[in-house]
Amino acid sequence: MSISRRSFLRTLGVGTAAGAAVQWPLAGISSAAVFEPARLREPAGPIRLNSNENAYGPALKAAAAMRSALASANRYPDAEYDALVERVASLHGVKKEQVLLGCGSSELLRVVAMAFLGSGKQFVQASPTFEALAFHAQRAGAEIVSVPLNREFAHDLDGMLARINSSSTLVYICNPNNPTASITPRKDLETFISKLPATCHVLIDEAYHHFAGQSSMYASFIEHPVKDERVIVCRTFSKVYGLAGLRLGYAIAAPAMIDKLNAYMTFSSVNVIVAKTAVAAMDDSASVSESVRKNADERQEFFNQAMARMLKPIDSHANFVMMDTHHPAREIIEHFRKNNVLIGRPFPPMDTHVRISLGLPEEMRAFWRTWDTLPYAKGQMQH
Q1: For the residues of 83-137, what is the DSSP string, one character each?
Q2: DSSP-based three-state secondary structure for 304
Q3: Closest C-alpha among 97, 28, 94 to residue 63
Q4: Angle value at C-alpha 147, between 102 and 160, nearest 5 degrees
Q5: Which residues does residue 127 pair with via DSSP β-bridges, in sequence order?
Q6: Spatial contact of 217 and 206, defined as CB atoms under 8 Å apart
Q7: Most buried of the four, 6, 160, 166, 298, by CB within 10 Å?
Q8: pLDDT at 11
Q9: Measured distance CA(123)–CA(172) in Å, rounded
């Protein structure tokens, strides 16, 4: 049985209060705008900087497609599913037989766990990293091996390789990593993959790919693939496209791998609304670029404000930042919650670090105002 993000977090005992639902306006949208008007919280609602969402919401073209698709809500999404598969394949220059869609990338993580894990099998991951796949590995009865990140907050690939044995069937690489927003160098990953036993598969989670940029350190395994049929790459429409609430993700892999995974998929798990909306979102490359630009500006401003307070966040390659507060993270999180600002949950063993999603400029100003009311912020340099 699949599990929702909210239910998953609740099982870990780290669920947070959800903001009240807000309607997007259906008319009167300025044609000069790039994104839907920002979702305003209700007067008593919290500022949500806790889930790495795109605070600007979907682009106008995607939102228009979403409204148009409501007329098809009484139909099953068969035709739209096929069209979306073809569009994803076209975007990445792969065959449609290499594409698998899911209800968010979270469903795909579950499916990969079902396909490759079980009693007597071993799952290897970094620590900390996104917990969903480990949760499904545990449900499957697999042994879970978690290897701490290295000093650069990258995956300790040598340490992971040392723990892999004949029972290891799946390795999870989240790159950029959640919650640290750090990257593991591409050349190191290629070397690591080449040393894995033939029976060990690799899931590379590229949820935050668009925010990482291109460099000698980072390159996507979709745009720049390796010739290895053990590699599966996952992406999501929840981040740069601003469609977290509609739930859509996809995997790219060899056709034989996609066939294997497809056997474990939920039937008709992709709805007609998101299928049509996602096609419009992919066709709007200008809005993707604008979202990446806004994120880069806001990320730089976060670092400016942090340094003015003598704080040193981890170098971020995503739409969130992780920062060492030198105080218990749970204490910081609770302080912000009491001031109506939600930030990321605790991520052991980094017990003094907090994760902050980048929000709208006014939301980030509220974050820093709240930070400055912490008792131990008084001794820091104020901006």
Answers
A1: HHHHHHHHHHT--GGGEEEESHHHHHHHHHHHHH--TT-EEEEEESS--HHHHHH
A2: helix
A3: 28
A4: 85
A5: 148
A6: no
A7: 160
A8: 41
A9: 8
Tokens of 293: 């630009």
Work out the burial of residue 49: count CB atoms within 10 Å of its CB; fewer than 13 is exposed, 13-18 middle, 19 or more buried: buried
CA distance linking residue 113 with residue 93, whole number of Å: 27
Give the count of alpha carbons within 13 A of 214, CB side only. 4
DSSP-derived 3-state class of residue 376: helix
Helix locations, the chain, DSSP H: 5-11, 60-69, 78-92, 104-116, 132-140, 157-163, 186-195, 209-212, 255-262, 272-283, 285-308, 329-338, 361-371
- At 227, is the secondary structure helix, strand, or coil? coil
146, HSE (Cβ side, Cα atoms, 13 Å): 13
Instruction: Report residue 27 CA to chain centroid gap.
Output: 31
* Max Cα distance, the chain (Å): 61
Cα–chain center distance at 48:
16
**Could you tell me the CA-to-CA distances from 380 to 76, 87, 116, 367 in Å, in that order?**
57, 51, 50, 16
* Closest to 264 in 3D by CA, of 142, 123, 134, 115: 115
**CA 234 to each of CA 131, 251, 259, 298: distance values in angstroms, whole numbers, following the listed order:** 15, 4, 15, 26
Note whether 236 and 109 are within 8 A (CB). no
Determine the pLDDT at residue 343: 98
Beta carbons of 110 and 138 less than 8 angstroms apart: no
Chain-centroid distance of CA 3 in Å reads 17
End-to-end CA distance of the chain: 50
> What secondary structure letter does DSSP report for 228?
-
Residue 35 is predicted with a pLDDT of 61
Which pair of structure tokens corresponds to residue 42? 């209700």
**Residue 281: both structure tokens together:** 């979102």
pTM: 0.87
Dihedral sign from CA coordinates of 301, 59, 15, 369: positive
Tokens of 370: 């709240």
Q: pLDDT tens for residues 199-231?
A: 999 999 999 999 998 888 999 999 999 999 999
Structure tokens at 353: 């670090």
Low-confidence ranges of the chain (pLDDT < 70): 1-44, 378-383
For residues 177 and 165, give the distance between their C-alpha atoms in angstroms, rounded to a whole number: 24
Q: How far apart are CA 88 and CA 85, in angstroms?
A: 5
